[in-house]
Amino acid sequence: QVQLVESGGGLVQPGGSLRLSCAASGRASSTYTMGWFRQGPGKEREFVAAMRYTRSLTAYADAVKGRFTISSDRAEGTLFLKMNNLKPEVTAVYYCAATPSQLIASTSRSMDNYDLWGQGTQVTVSS
Known about the structure:
Layout: E1 3-7, E2 10-12, E3 18-25, E4 33-39, E5 46-52, E6 58-60, E7 68-73, E8 78-83, E9 92-99, E10 116-117, E11 121-125
Parallel strand pairs: 2-11
Antiparallel strand pairs: 1-3, 3-8, 4-5, 4-9, 5-6, 7-8, 9-10, 9-11
């Protein structure tokens, strides 16, 4: 059974950067689809980015394109989310998610298509 543990969140000033990590214990096949979602205060959980370890899929929410980058270290079984030029409105709990299904760009955006979730890591952007 694959388990996901996020880290790297924290308090950062507007304009700053953070890199989130998601360590996947167990054997996550290279065909897994991995994703990042976030849930801000009083908001529903929303899609941020997704990819497959084989890099045959990379998808981003329009709100983060150009500022966030999803990547992975397949050998270490770790997923990353590099976030640049952070703004207060991205304050949220960020969750890592995974599924053995080979999702496509459209289906990777729905949290209903993911089977495994981490506990989340808080990102707060404030001066």
